[in-house]
């Protein structure tokens, strides 16, 4: 059983920053790809970013490239998403995801989500 718990969401003004965290437990965290998705009201869940098992390979959605930074600390079983220059369109529930194998292929394990609201 894998548990993922997000934290760090909140309300911020446009142009501000937030850092999300995802604490993982229940298996060997360092072996698996981790990532972030988000879902805005009335929209489908969309990919935001992912990080390889050792943090060496990063991949971002075009909409967040240059503003968001994904990272992980395997010693702490935690993944992060540093979000800078936030825009109102970044408002969404952000979900932590973990691969079930060593490759980034659905289905994933999911956290419960954390709300990020960016005011204009």
What does this protein structure show overall?
This protein starts with a strand and ends with a strand. The protein has 120 residues and is mainly β. 32% of the residues are buried. The strands form two sheets. Strands 2, 4, 5, 6, 9, 10 and 11 form a seven-stranded mixed sheet that branches. A four-stranded antiparallel sheet has the order 1-3-8-7, with no helix packed on it. Helix content is 0%, strand content 51%. A hairpin with a 4-residue loop joins strand 7 (68-73) and strand 8 (78-83).
Q: How many strands, what sense, and barrel or not for the largest sheet?
A: 7 strands, mixed
Topology order in helix (H) and strand (E) letters: EEEEEEEEEEE
Radius of gyration: 13 Å
End-to-end Cα distance: 40 Å
The dominant shape is: globular
Output the number of helix runs: 0
**Beta-strand content:** over 45%
Low-confidence stretches: none
**Fraction of helical residues:** under 10%
How many beta-strand runs?
Answer: 11
Main structural class: mainly beta
Mean pLDDT across all amino acids: 95
State the main characteristics.
mainly beta, single chain, 120 residues, 0% helix, 11 strands
């Amino acid at each position: 059983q894998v548990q993922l718990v997000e934290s760090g969401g909140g309300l911020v003004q446009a142009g501000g920053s937030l850092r999300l965290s995802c604490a993982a437990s229940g298996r060997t965290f360092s072996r698996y790809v981790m990532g972030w998705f988000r879902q805005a009201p009335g929209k489908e869940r969309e990919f935001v970013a992912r990080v390889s098992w050792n943090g060496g390979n990063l991949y971002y959605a075009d909409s967040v490239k240059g503003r968001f930074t994904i990272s992980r600390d395997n010693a702490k079983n935690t993944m992060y998403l540093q979000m800078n220059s936030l825009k109102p369109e970044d408002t969404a529930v952000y979900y932590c995801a973990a691969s079930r194998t060593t490759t980034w292929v659905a289905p994933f394990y999911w956290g419960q989500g954390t709300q990020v609201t960016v005011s204009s």
